[in-house]
Amino acid sequence: MILGVAEHERGRLNERSLEVLTLGRRLAHRLGLPLHAVLVGADAEPLVARLAPYGVAVAHLVQHERLDEYAPAAWAQGLVGIIEAERPQAVLAAGTDRGNEVMAHVAARMALPMAANCTEVEPGERYRVTRLRWGGSLLEESWLGGTVKLLTVAPQAVPAEEAPVLAPAAVKPVTPALAEGDLRVRVTARIEATRGGISLTDARVVVSGGRGVGSPEGFKALEELASLLRGAVGCSRVVTSQGWRPHADQVGQTGTRVAPELYIACGISGAIQHLVGCKGAKRILAINTDPEAPMVARADYAIIGDLHAIIPALNAEIRKANADQPPR
Amino acid sequence: MNVLVCVKRVPAVAGKIMLTADAQEIDTRYLGFTISPHEECAVEEAVRLVAAHGGSGVVLTLGPPAATEQLRDAMALGLDRAVLLETDGREWDPMATAAAIVDAVRAERAAGVEYDLLLFGNEAADTGDYQVGIRVAHALDRPCVTGVKALEVRDGRVVAKREASGGWEIFEVALPAVLTVKEGLNLPRYPSLPGRLRAKKKAIEQIAPQRSGGGLEKARLKPPKERGGQVEILGRGPEAAARAVEIFRALGVL
Questions:
Q1: What is the pLDDT of residues A226-267, one digit of tens each?
Q2: Which pTM value belongs to this model?
Q3: Strands A262-266 and B216-222: what pairing?
Q4: CB-based contact B141 A115, cutoff 8 Å
Q5: Would you call B127 an interface residue with chain A, using a CB distance cutoff of 8 Å?
Q6: All residues at 6 or more sequence positions from B27 whose CB lies less than 8 Å from its CB, including other chains
Q7: What is the distance in angstroms between the Cα of B202 and the nearest Cα belonging to chain A?
Q8: Is residue B59 within 8 Å of B75, Cβ to Cβ?
Q9: Adjacency order of strands within the sheet including B81-86
Q10: CB-based contacts of A216: which residues, under 8 Å, 6+ apart?
Q11: Is B9 at the interface with chain A, CB within 8 A?
Q12: CA–CA gap between residue B57 and residue B74 (Å, rounded)
């Protein structure tokens, strides 16, 4: 069988898991094998109904009184128990922080290789996998060996798709044997975010600034534009390394990946590490003095010129448009 | 406290990535090299921890002889010593890399050097394997916290924070421990000229590591599908604003 790890937290399923199960089901179908899912921790049972439409025949619920909080090594130990008992041909998790972490712990415990952030999988004695390099600026085709193939699926590489055949998934509770060492690392406290305003990941519009903004003060006009469009302000890596904006605002391979309706890139040349951070945007507007900048080439729309003149003009134009319109 | 930081030499790519003719590597003829951004923060944190708690900071890399450049860069920031696990430049998969690092840590232990903290980047900028630190921690039977963006060491324990959906998760583990860190943990300093001069004089210990394990074998590299389409130039300068606002309205963001 093929085993897919379904991530969940506090009663909510991580949508990335549905992408994992979609890829898992396709793989299982090609091999003529059933697809099983595994959910670790409390409050998982009500989520099984959400998995069945994705072709899950059996849902293994790893339950233990010490698994009330996330503990990566203990989660991995729960998975190792199922892998040893059920001998899946492959185990797939999401290429999220947790998915990559737990799968790496499984790989370490079982002395197996693991391929992170795969976008395509071809089964065989060794699997031929395509996976992300440079955060997705490049792809790598690799051979993945091991008696059990361990891999994670790059987020948004495989759109979640329900299966045409619906049957309820059988539920199989499992209690793992956990050692004290498995619980050395577990969440001991949480701090809920108190950030006001719209977060970068949720914003429908992101106004992002790069080196061309020139100074921390230069971001005032971008903040105004973001506020007029009910969006959030982002920035490129050079801006955070200059100390002009906090790292939390950074869009890119080592910052936040954003997927707004509109991404406005102001004075950003468009290094590949930045482009992978905004490639999820539906539309990109680049404002840049250099018409040859990679950011301009990658954009849908561009305004060529000095952002210090263009953004205030944009702000004035939007205020005028808003004044002409009855408030919504 | 003694801190070991593991870094990786990677090409300093910025624009379009060009591949070699056999699609095995990035064409680096016109590129410099650097260490991954997460690891720059790991180096900075090691320097700060040693300054605050005493002890010694060591940087280690597995890579070709040219990777001494990255080791000296790290020493220029204030680390005391460097170890090069020398390869012929071909890529080692994460399993083999972790095994070589474990061997090196055990060899240091046999020579009387015990590390309280091993720092890694959360993932290398190029291969993004997300597993070397975890494999090393498991082999050495040490707790491992990944994705760390803030940390504090006190009374033989480390409190580490990492971002999670809608906030932060806090972990607390006893030393010795392994942490994999992310950019944003700190703002790395630039090396000073005296620091660079001192680093030049420091010896780099070179070890020929045993290559073992493996199981993820690169076949070839390829560019991803490009987002197609032409860019529409809305205009030049401030007079393009009116056209831009029309577009905003059409996109439903106004």
A1: 999 999 999 999 999 999 999 999 999 999 999 999 999 999
A2: 0.95
A3: unpaired
A4: no
A5: yes
A6: B18, B19, B20
A7: 28
A8: yes
A9: A187-192, B167-174, B157-164, B144-154, B177-181, B117-121, B3-7, B57-63, B81-86, B204-207
A10: A244, A245
A11: no
A12: 10
